[in-house]
């Protein structure tokens, strides 16, 4: 089985390529920055996994049109080549942020989309184009909406939180009560493999998430446990913290409104649809097992 991956140099791409190769697949990396990329698609491949895209810029310095040029327009161009090829499957990695920047209850695939950022809007417009096309018989389209992906070697907000705990700094946001979904790279790889080997799975939109959700306070406790430290949780009033982050929006402080939201919001993502489609229940790792593996990698 030959698999084409765009964005193969990124965290997900690297891990997915290694995983699929261990399953006996041949993996081709396709760079959409190459002006001749359209001529380098092997039509004998089984699937295209489209990971390349412009990620959400938490500093909010990117021009909106940059997101649409990469996340929407390049996806459309690639999908057209897929339609004209003999390739069976097209995986488009969108995002839960294409649907909602905040969640009440659990986010399912049938929630009406209302993204607020250029990143989310560009992902949604790409989804809408793909869903509006007629698929030739025998082809499948999978729109993947992952929540926060993590794994060994991945940085981001998890690593920021790790450094806070490692330095012995008390967690000052313990007053914020939340629950968040995560996605271990091990479970992501497993989901993709299952799609590839199970030919009876229907096209559609699928959320990717671990089975369990955790609060940020639980995450701090988990990091502390890995570091053999006692969790330090400070319950500072939320109103005081929100006043501090307003300053961080103006001058460069470790905490601003965007980062506070990412660290304290509730964002629970349902993975029931994909488990039902793949006829699975237990995933390779639990949320805590996957997070522990990621956190342990920060120590190296």
What does this structure look like?
With 300 residues, the protein is α/β, with parallel strands linked by helices. Helices cover 39% and strands 15% of the residues. It has 10 helices and 11 strands. A 6-stranded parallel beta sheet has the order 2-1-3-4-6-9, sandwiched between helices. Helix 4 (157-166) links the parallel strand 7 (148-150) and strand 8. Helix 2 (64-83) runs parallel beside helix 3 (118-131) and helix 6 crosses helix 10 (287-298). It is globular and about 60 Å long. It starts with a strand and ends with a helix. The model has no long low-confidence stretch (mean pLDDT 94).
What is the total tally of β strands? Answer: 11
State the share of residues found in helices, binned by percent: 25-40%
User: Roughly what fraction of the amino acids lie in strands?
Assistant: 15-25%
Overall average residue pLDDT:
94
Shape: globular
Q: Report the C-alpha radius of gyration, rounded.
A: 20 Å
**Main sheet: strand order:** 2-1-3-4-6-9
């Amino acid at each position: 089985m030959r698999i084409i991956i765009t964005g193969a140099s990124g965290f997900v791409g690297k891990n997915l390529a290694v995983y699929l190769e261990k399953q006996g697949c041949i993996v081709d990396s396709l760079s959409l920055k190459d002006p001749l990329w359209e001529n380098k698609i092997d039509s004998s491949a089984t699937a295209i996994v489209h990971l390349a895209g412009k990620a959400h810029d938490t500093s909010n310095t990117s021009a909106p049109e940059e997101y649409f040029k990469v996340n929407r327009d390049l996806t459309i161009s690639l999908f057209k080549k897929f339609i004209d090829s003999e390739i069976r499957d097209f995986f488009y990695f969108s995002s839960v942020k294409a649907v909602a920047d905040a969640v009440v209850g659990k986010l399912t695939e049938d929630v009406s989309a209302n993204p607020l950022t250029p990143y989310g809007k560009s992902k949604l417009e790409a989804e809408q184009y793909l869903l509006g096309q007629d698929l030739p018989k025998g082809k499948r389209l999978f729109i993947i909406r992952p929540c926060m992906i993590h794994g060994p070697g991945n940085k981001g907000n998890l690593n920021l939180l790790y450094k806070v705990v490692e330095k012995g700094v008390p967690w000052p946001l313990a007053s914020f009560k939340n629950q968040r979904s995560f996605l271990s790279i091990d479970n992501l790889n497993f989901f993709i493999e299952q799609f590839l080997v199970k030919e009876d799975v229907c096209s559609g939109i699928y959320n990717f998430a671990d089975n369990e959700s955790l609060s940020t306070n639980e995450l701090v406790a988990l990091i502390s446990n890995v570091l053999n430290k006692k969790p330090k949780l400070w319950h500072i009033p939320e109103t005081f913290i929100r006043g501090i982050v307003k300053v961080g929006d103006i001058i460069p402080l470790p905490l601003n409104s965007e980062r506070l939201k990412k660290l304290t919001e509730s964002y629970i993502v349902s993975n029931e649809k994909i488990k039902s489609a793949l006829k699975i229940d237990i995933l390779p790792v639990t949320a805590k097992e996957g997070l522990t593996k990621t956190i342990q990698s920060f120590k190296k």
